[in-house]
Amino acid sequence: MFGSIENYYEILVFDRINRDLRDDPTLTPDHLEDIACLALNQLKPRYIRNSIDLLTHISDEERAAMFDEVERALMFAVETIRRRHSEHGGEVT
Q1: Which helix (H) or strand (E) holds 76?
Q2: Does pLDDT of 18 surpass 50?
Q3: String of b and e for 17-39 (b: at least 16 CB within 10 Å)?
Q4: Residue 12 CB-density burial (10 A; 0-12 exposed, 13-18 middle, 19+ buried)
Q5: How many CA atoms lie within 13 A of 76 on its CB side?
Q6: Confidence band, pLDDT 50/70/90 cuts, at residue 24
Q7: Residues of 45-81 as b/e, b for ≥16 C-beta within 10 angstroms?
Q8: What is the DSSP string of 19-60?
């Protein structure tokens, strides 16, 4: 019944990771999943039924703010994972 509901920030975070981080040789698939989790935990969920519905009901400023929030959350997550990686001799815990 609720199969069409999703968190829009998940779409933004996953798209950004796939676009900008997936081919980084220093990040494993486990790192990317940890980065996604850390980033999403920094963002308040924004549930939608259809991304078109959301994009037609928010202003350009609100959309830009959402992208900025994703950027900040991902920067924090990447820095955290890289720090943990270096602190543990190459192992991320």
Answers
A1: helix 60-87
A2: yes
A3: beeebeeeeebeeebbebbbebb
A4: buried
A5: 15
A6: very high
A7: ebebeeeeebeeeeeeeeeeebeebbeebbeebbeeb
A8: HHTTT-TT--HHHHHHHHHHHHHTS---EES-HHHHHHHS-H
Q: Which tokens hold the place of 56?
A: 């037609």
Domain range summary for the chain, segments of one domain joined by +: 6-87
Which tokens hold the place of 66?
């959402």
Q: Cα–Cα distance between 45 and 83 in angstroms, integer?
A: 26
What is the C-alpha radius of gyration for the chain, rounded to an integer number of angstroms? 15
Contacts of 59 (CB under 8 A, 6+ apart): none
What distance, in Å, lies between the first and last C-alpha atoms of the chain?
A: 37
| 32-46 pLDDT tens trace | 999 999 999 999 999
Q: Count CB-CB contacts under 10 A for residue 6.
A: 16
